[in-house]
Each structure stands twice: as structure tokens, then as C-alpha cells.
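Review form for a predicted model. The reviewer records the input and the model, then writes brief findings.
Reviewer: anonymous (R2)
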Amino acid sequence: MLRAYVNSTLKALEQTEYIEKIIGYKVKLCIEYDKLEQLKYYASKGSFKIVNIEYLENIEVIVEITKEKLDDFTNNNNKKPLKFLKYDILEEKYIDK
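Model under review:
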């Protein structure tokens, strides 16, 4: 009986899809309307994941991003074509790699 449970468990594990998680941040970005397509472009290239978009006076976008990518965007914000008006780190969390 024990062997049957072991075999069933092994088969289930073989069919399981693993998702690797890493430490990252949930961040609120504030951008101008004309920068939205650029932001979506960077997201499509895997720089980060867009979670939510709010259309207000400026656009507020909630993203999940790794620490390294956030550092790239914030330290080089003046050199990159994508500039955001401000950003707030909402929480540190595990995100998909």
C-alpha cells in the first residue's frame, strides 16, 4: 500500500509545473499619458509585470518588479527613454521569475 502512495506521489510531482519565485516589489508608478505605450513595451520584454492601471490626471500603474530592474529604472531614470514622475514601493513580496 505504501508503494502505491509513493508511486502516485511521484507521478503527480512529475506532472507538476513549477513556478520559480524571487523577492521583488509591488510598486506604484506615476507616468504621463504619452509614456504608457513605452511602459507596456518594457513589460512585454519581461522587465516587470503590470498588475493594474488607473487613468487619473496622470496614469498610475501598479507593477511587480525585481529589485535589480527597479534599481535600473530608478538609478538611470534620466538616461532611459521611459521616465516616470514618481514611484512608491507598496510592498516587498515574492514574484514570478
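Findings: The longest helix spans residues 2-14.
Further findings: The chain is about 30% helix and 40% strand.
Recommendation: see findings above.
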